Amino acid sequence: MWLTWRRYRVRIILMALYALALIVFMIITERAYQSALSSCGLRPTGSQLRACSGVISGAESHDSWVVVGLGILPFLIGLILGTPLVASELEAKTNRLAWTQGVTRTRWLLVSWLTLVIPVVIAMSLLALTVQWWLTHVRASDFVGTGLIQSNQFGISGVAPIAAAVFALSFGAVVGALWGRMSWSVAATLVGLWLVLGTMMGWIVPSLAPQVAVPVSAAKLPSSLGWLVSAGVRRIPDVRVGPHASSVTSIVQHCTNIANSSSNLQSGGGHVSLVYLQCLNSHGVQAVDFYQPPSHYWILQWREAGVYFVLVAALLGLSMWLVRRWRA
Amino acid sequence: MTAALETVDLGRRYMINWALRNCTLQVPEGSITGLVGPNGAGKSTLLRLAAGVSRPSAGSVSVFGQKADQNSASFLARVGYLDQDRPLYKQLRVEEMLKFGQQLNASWDQESATKWLVDLEIPLDWKVSLLSTGQQAQVALAVCMGKRPDLMLLDEPMASLDPLARRGVTQMLLDSVAARGTTVLLSSQIVSELEPICDHLIILSKSQVQVSGSIGSMLANHHVLVGPEGSMSFNAVNVISSKVAGRQATLLVEGDPGKLGSEWQLLAPDLEEIVLAYLAKPNARQTASSEVSIETIDRDPS
Amino acid sequence: MIEFRLDRRSGVPAYRQIIDQVRHAIQLGILQPGDQLPTVREVVKQITINPNTVHRAYLELELQGLTEGRIGSGTFVRQSLSEISNQQTKLLSQLELWIRRAQKAGLGAEAIEALIAEAMHSMKEEE
After folding, report:
1. B124 and B172 both lie in a single domain
2. Most buried by CB count within 10 Å: which residue of A2, A271, B228, B242?
3. Within an 8 Å CB–CB cutoff, is residue C71 touching chain B?
4. pTM here?
5. Residue B80: which of B215, B190, B162, B173 has the closest Cα?
6. How far apart are CA A261 and CA A276, in angstroms?
7. Which one of B104, B128, B141 makes the best mutation probe of the A interface by having the most chain A beta carbons within 10 Å?
8. In which domain, by residue range, is B238 found?
9. ipTM surpassing 0.85
10. What's B299's DSSP letter?
11. What is the pLDDT of residues B143-180, one digit of tens each?
């Protein structure tokens, strides 16, 4: 354990400092926001609005800084701590030194991994707590809602970032153990993490709990409804469908054409247009948005963590197998 | 008498090339065995297989009766290995390298390892990357011997060392064998370096074992015959090399040539001559099985 | 304490040299009966030699009756060696007498040596 710490201490400290910087940033912006809020009031009007809108847009940009800052952390962890764990030993041939001492290869791997996981978990937990606090106090869009369930904010709050970071570490380690060369492993880790994390956030996590379908109306919806997962069309429930009804796709096509010809406004997706919506309704079809409501927040968080947990266990097992079987 | 190291038809292959093949030998416990051969002969491969760093492609290798396996703590505790590249953690200081040995080994002699390095005037608080190649080699050796293994596998430990440092290494090895009965297997390109300290020798050439056995019996079983060229056939004898200069023939043979005519001179070869003769003829093999000549002796109390 | 030296170029095997040096030391009185021979570890510190070779030499010395090993202590020169050296001292003085007689008869050192060699040779042929 001492050995891993000694070799990785610079990197671990850098990570810790980075996390600290993010925390400090969040604290500062929150303070500024609160003071601006108290001077602006909840519903600014008139001349106040102009001044306060500056605060709003400022808060929005802070939001994105935090999201990006935290979002790249798993990648950094995977690349800087995970990949070199096995790969740097194999490339420098120091495995011929480390594995001929008194500890078995498996024990070496597990202890090294643990030495890195512990500071990662501590740092990420602190960050997650700070984000939780920060998000409840600072909202990036309208001055309403809790904002805890925007998709980009979901990934950086709760237990998700901790699980994702541990996963990234283990993933990097396996890739390094597979390849034995730093350069290839780094590239592969980067690409691999991008794919996995993207898939998780894009498809898997939203599917971990039943989604709620909300019909689209012409009025713009407040985002407090929750995490907008996707949009689509479906038949209006409880409306009888006749035997000669046309398919949904053909109805959509028909209504899109009508909407396009009736107005010159080309809106993306086409479902914002009132004409389109009315046309759909007249054919017994409605446009819907699929949401994960805020009530599902913790269910999704723990299930996501669960998925990562299983993956980490599998990755660890794979790393152990690879390390055991490595033939110089 | 258990063999410290035993291989049975051991082989290791990289893609289609065999780095080592049909290797069957025993290294007796408490011996100092030299491993000679040209570059690429398979010396490093054999040592790596014995240390468990590599896995065999064919055959088996066992140490003190136990299969060479880096996933067995009991195996690891008894075997020390020094790789040819002398890998070290370059960003660590010398004393931290010793701490590395202490942390990763169950039994560790910090005192004598430190003393040895201090005697060699290697600064303990320097980063390893700042040391010369020779000094780094000695640090690597200190880490290897600090765990007091029962079998030391050393890949060219004398290379890149100045004569004084070589003496220091030799002293350390001899002392270890004398005091604890350590078995040492070391490879070298230079026979004259091995001869004073080794009692057994393995000659490797083109990935195969040519000779393996005690040096004493090797010297006893090989003879140089000098005589007129012409009648050069002998029964019950294995001709290793033959040279003809003008009308004189010089042969190196293994085995007892029996009664010779008066035109033949029988001479005793030295070890280097024997080794060179074998290496020059990679297909030559020792036929006599040389006895394991380390008697079971009560060790000196110390 | 005896200090060993190895002459690698002499062609004499190392273990043989050890044995010879111990015998020589005993004869000269450098090693007295009851003296301890250096331990294998100490020998190896003096000269670069395989420890097993030293063991072999010490074993042979024991078999020749010159030394005895005491378990837990080391290898020691035999006490009863004094008998052997007494015998040798007697023989030595007898030989000195004979040499003086030969010298008186007019033989030089070389002639005396040749005489001894011939006597040994003919004795060997008688065996």
Report:
1. yes
2. A271
3. yes
4. 0.78
5. B173
6. 11
7. B104
8. 219-280
9. no
10. P
11. 998 999 999 999 999 888 888 888 888 988 998 899 88
